Q: What sequence folds into this?
């Protein structure tokens, strides 16, 4: 990494460059200095268990959480220091698909997808109508514009959310747990959709997930994070052949040795007793 | 010592809460009054449908409640006035009490129950289902999109509802006046109108605008501060109602005192 002040992303092909990113909720630090690049046109899958900090990382990348230190460069602008107005400009170039879809329940699917267009462009209604149909077709929801979100199934909600994220023709697309809560077949359909978007538009896609099967289908590169630190970053092949214990543990789905942790705790508790009598007991702990 | 610390903490929390309310109100005011002239249009359509929901749909229940309140006031006033043989002053007592105090207050309480709670529940649900986050990632300000129309609707509708409530209260009082105090209906209404000064009505209306701002700010802030799941939405709604009632009474006290010393007594 370059020393001193980084004026621009260090990697020439990088769309997003994260440098020594730290995020805290109050006293508790969630991300402990994370650095990585996302290259133009690649699909980066951020893997990690529950509480690993992967969702916080995603929320910070789209500006929903404030970083406490570090830099996030998106298209050459550091969103950690940018003004609210500039952040809005950056946000118009990114699309985000939320875990539950986050469609507005008071609007139809069509109104949901058209919302960013109506808010940010001066396009005529007829033009918006055409774009709307196009976007719905891209996600396989043609003819559903007059449905309300509550009338859609889980998978359809996610597709509608993707259509809304695509409305402004974003350069970067973020997905939060795209297959969460879906059966394997519907989830595979969402994976195919992500692959198609990448193939058709050469979009840069960042996906946060803990679903390994889906991750290996869609990823060009993977980033494994654990307890707020990057454990590994590499292509799917590199990850598959990795011998790093934490990577193997995650990929081979080996349970966290929580039990031994508790045993340590028990030993510590029982070790308290001899402590009271002799100083020799202290050596053990 | 513990008690002093607790009182101190409580005061600080209260002040910081009022600070949050003021900040939310200020931003909503910006999007309602300033931003429309800077090319960020207000969602007028949304404000109108919100006004329908908050205002027009509240009319039946508000009418009924304030009619009864007027009648109760007349009965209570007559109980005392009868002893002085001044039962004909019932009309004045009802009209002045309704316009200056109970019209705005009862209206505010009905609106807290119907709309303040609904704001907290609606925005809280949107927060929990990441819809607020979705707005932000689409570079759409939730304050402009969701909250400013509510402020506008409430600031317009609460005074309107208050005028209606005053009228219904006087009507309620007239039932007693006609039945028990030798008034004819027309004479009762005329006595009521004659007894009212313009400032009786305007002070009530100024208070009602402030109540509207308070109720909206609390409802929306409680909604936005919802974190967690569905049960938190319920808690936010309860908090919105309780805090709104408390703050409305506080605002009422402040303005009543202010008007008193400004010579509006």
A:
């Amino acid at each position: 990494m370059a020393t001193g002040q980084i004026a621009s992303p260090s990697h020439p092909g990088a769309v997003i460059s994260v440098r020594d990113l730290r995020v805290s909720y109050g006293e508790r630090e969630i991300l402990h200095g994370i650095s990585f690049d996302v290259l133009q046109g690649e699909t980066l899958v951020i893997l990690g268990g529950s509480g690993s900090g992967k969702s916080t990382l995603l929320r910070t990348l789209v500006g929903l959480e404030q970083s406490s230190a570090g830099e996030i460069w998106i298209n050459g602008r550091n969103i950690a220091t940018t003004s609210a107005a500039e952040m809005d400009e950056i946000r118009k170039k990114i699309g985000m698909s939320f875990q539950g879809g986050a469609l507005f329940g008071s609007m139809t699917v069509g109104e949901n997808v058209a919302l960013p267009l109506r808010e940010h462009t001066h396009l005529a209604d007829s033009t918006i109508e055409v774009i709307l149909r196009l976007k719905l077709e891209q996600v396989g929801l043609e003819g559903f514009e007059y449905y309300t979100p509550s009338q859609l199934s889980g998978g359809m909600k996610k597709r509608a959310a993707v259509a809304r994220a695509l409305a402004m023709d974003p350069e970067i697309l973020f997905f939060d747990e795209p297959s969460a809560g879906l059966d394997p077949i519907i989830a595979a359909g969402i994976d195919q959709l992500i692959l198609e978007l990448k193939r058709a538009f050469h979009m840069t896609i960042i996906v946060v997930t803990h679903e390994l099967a889906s991750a290996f289908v869609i990823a060009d590169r993977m980033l494994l994070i654990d307890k707020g630190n990057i454990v590994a970053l590499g292509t799917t092949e590199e990850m598959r052949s990795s011998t790093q214990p934490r990577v193997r543990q995650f990929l081979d789905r080996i349970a966290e040795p929580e039990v031994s942790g508790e045993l340590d705790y028990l030993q510590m508790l029982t070790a308290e007793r001899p402590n009271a009598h002799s100083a020799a007991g202290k050596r053990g702990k | 010592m513990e008690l002093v610390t607790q009182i101190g903490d409580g005061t600080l929390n209260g002040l910081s809460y009022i600070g949050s309310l003021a900040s939310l109100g200020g931003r909503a005011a910006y999007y309602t009054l300033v931003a429309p002239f800077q090319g960020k249009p207000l969602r007028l359509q949304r404000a109108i449908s919100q006004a329908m929901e908050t205002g027009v749909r509240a009319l039946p229940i508000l009418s009924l409640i304030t009619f009864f309140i007027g009648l109760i006031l007349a009965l209570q006033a007559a109980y005392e006035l009868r002893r002085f043989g001044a039962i004909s002053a019932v009309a004045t007592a009802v009209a002045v009490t309704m316009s200056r105090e109970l019209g705005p207050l009862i209206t505010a309480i009905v609106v807290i129950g119907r709309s303040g709670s609904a704001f907290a529940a609606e925005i809280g649900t949107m927060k929990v289902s990441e819809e607020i986050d979705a707005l932000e990632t689409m570079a759409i300000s939730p304050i402009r999109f969701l909250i400013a129309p509510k402020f506008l609707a409430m600031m317009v509708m609460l005074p309107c509802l208050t005028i209606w409530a005053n009228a219904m209260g006087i009507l309620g009082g007239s039932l007693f006046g006609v039945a028990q105090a030798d008034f004819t209906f027309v004479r009762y209404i005329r006595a009521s109108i004659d007894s009212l000064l313009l400032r009786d009505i305007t002070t009530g209306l100024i208070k009602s605008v402030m109540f509207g701002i308070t109720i909206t700010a609390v409802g929306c802030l409680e909604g936005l501060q919802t974190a967690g799941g569905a049960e938190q939405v319920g808690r936010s709604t309860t908090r919105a109602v309780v805090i709104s009632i408390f703050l409305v009474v506080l605002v009422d006290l402040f303005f009543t005192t202010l008007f008193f010393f400004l010579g509006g007594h």
Notes: Strands of chain A lie at 14-25, 28-39, 43-47, 69-74, 77-78, 94-97, 172-176, 204-209, 221-226, 229-235. The first strand of chain A starts at residue 14 and ends at 25.
